[in-house]
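Good day; I would like, with your permission, to put a structural problem before you. What I wish to show you is a protein chain and, alongside it, a tokenised description of its three-dimensional fold. Please examine both parts with care and let me know of anything in them that strikes you as inconsistent. Thank you for your consideration; the sequence and its tokens are set out here:

***
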Amino acid sequence: MTRTRTLAALGAALAVALVPACAAERPPAERGGWNETGEVTYWMWDATQLPAYQQCADDFEARNPEIDIAIEQVGWDDYWGRMLTGFVANAAPDVFVNHTSKYGDYTARGLIEPLDELVARDGPDLSQFVEGTGDLWVGDDGKRYGLPKDFDAVGIFYNAGMAAEAGITPEQMQNLTWNPQDGGTYEDVLARLSVDVNGVRGDEPGFDPRNVATYGLGISYPPGGGSGQTQWSMYTATLGWSHTDKPLWGTHFHYDDPRFQDTIAWWRSLIDKGYMPPVEQAVGNEPAQLMQAGRVALVTEGSWNIATFAKLGGIELATAATPIGPQGYRAAMTNSLADSISAGSPNKGAAWKWVRYLASPECQSVVAQGGVVVPAIASVVPAAEARIAESGLDITPFTRHLREGTAFPFPAAQHAADVDEIMGTALERVMAGSADPSSFTAANDEVNALFTQG
């Protein structure tokens, strides 16, 4: 066991010690902390969404003067560590923005409140949410632990000026094809967009892959952990590959599958060809920064970053859908954040009122007008798409996956932190060239062992 996992296990054990084992088993009326007045603390990590949620809080307080909402924004890198510390010290927020990759650990330890009885009593109508977003928040115990607040998908951001200079049309960008053998027209475009220091393109004689001025594809580092959400999952899914034996809460992983290993081998080959920067150039550099500096021409990223890309100055950007794979369809991983209630909250009645409001058309309409993300209520989606379009970037290449049925869910699973650590290490070694993709078979055995240990 590595030191990281040892510390994680220690923190989890401390958290367990502070939460009554039977707390989540009793109905709300029999559990303490159901005050419906007072202050509700609310944590979130995305600073770009803070103004919209502060407006929601102001509107909520006007309707519920007996409740005060105290919002604290903590960046993603510190958010989960502070959350763990809060649970251990019995000082977790009453309500917090939760992530699919995290909440399985919380449900297993009784740290967040199941909402089924509350939803059945008070609503909301779960059919109002974009299809599939609500399902992500039903744990492996069959209980609901969050109400969806948004949804996302993966697509392509590309430098439209560079594409035009290379003779690549918008129509070509919207209809790319891919396969793990030769990369299809997708790799053709990446080669064409790659330019060495002498001005030679990647599809021209004399291209120097060791001295590249602009790479066709930017790499997000670390290279994806167990999910590969924005890095490689949009390729593997077009081969019919899936992370686990079930869409959600699977217990047997498939990183030993040749389809996965062939995909990563192709992805790694882009570095050798000079179409994607080597790992050492990508570490510490965000894809958006590399695009603005002219170092990369195209990146695969999540729709939640559209506001960041829209604000890049000095370049003309456009969006495109992920490439169509060998089986004739494109794919994109989708996820939905949700608001959860801490089981140890002394103010769960007021917290529940706030969570219901966060999942209401009133609040999500405010969020839609913020132009940062697409809210999870289906009726609000068109307004969000229109508002985001005002930034100059079209989000429909991302959201089309929901309409066309080509989206697949983030692979929620128990032991998610350990899976990410094992696969993150394995991927880093392969992408750095120090291990062969066949090494994923041993990593997969280690992952699956997590689910067979007593």
